[in-house]
Design goal:
This protein has 198 residues and is of the alpha/beta class. 55% of the residues lie in helices and 15% in strands. The protein has helices at 15-24, 32-39, 43-53, 65-72, 76-98, 133-144, 148-156, 161-166, 177-197, and strands spanning 3-9, 29-31, 58-59, 62-63, 106-110, 125-130, 170-173. The two termini are 12 Å apart.
């Protein structure tokens, strides 16, 4: 039975970089954010989004992601409403994806809001990726061409590292990529040993 490794971390922690490294090491990776983007293109989901958030966030028939982000990242209630539309679709998408990898020992499920969405309960192992707050802020400003204020408001919507770590089996500090990669190798070794013992 394939085990699911939940990989999470706050915005700008570099969890996708770590996920890619797991992939290089032969572990298939599902990126929940990519799954959500795919789902957000389907007509029935767009219809639901429109009925909840209104025509204002659409340019004609095209969803304006920036406008939607502006709404949901400044209001926890609105974010919860969006997640209620998207999460069931991501869950189905992941289950379909898993069909192709059922012969693997492990797969990675990478999600920023693994805990907030409750999906952590479906994972066998959980890894949290951390990095100093200032490093994270700088990374996101550069990556998303955004402002410090916008990054901080998104951070406020997520659990803090302390809370994540308390529910995780492993922690990878991604302040230095070389060390972070060594942690990935170490974790995979530990998981292999555990698997051989079971």
């Amino acid at each position: 039975m394939t085990k699911v490794i939940g990989l999470t971390g706050g915005i700008g922690s570099g969890k996708t970089t770590i996920a890619n490294y797991f992939n290089e090491m032969g572990v298939p990776v599902y990126i929940a954010d990519d799954g959500a983007k795919r789902i957000m293109q389907s007509d029935n989901i767009l219809k639901e989004v429109k009925s909840v958030f209104g025509q204002d966030i659409f340019d004609g028939e095209v969803l304006n992601r920036a406008k939607l982000a502006q709404i949901v990242f400044n209001d926890k209630e609105q974010l919860a409403r969006l997640n209620a539309i998207v999460h069931p679709g991501v869950k189905r998408d992941f289950e379909l994806w898993m069909q192709d990898y059922k012969n693997y020992d492990y797969v990675i499920y990478e999600a920023a809001i693994l805990f907030e969405s409750g999906r952590y309960k479906e994972c066998d192992v959980i890894i949290t990726v951390t990095a100093p707050e200032e490093t994270r802020i700088e990374r996101v400003i550069v990556r998303d061409k955004t402002t410090r204020e916008q990054v901080l408001s998104r951070m406020k919507m997520q659990w803090d590292d302390e809370k994540r770590i308390s529910k995780s089996n492993f922690v990878i500090n991604n302040d230095n990529l070389k060390n972070a990669k060594e942690e990935v190798v170490k974790i995979l070794k530990i998981l292999k040993i555990k698997q051989n013992q079971s």
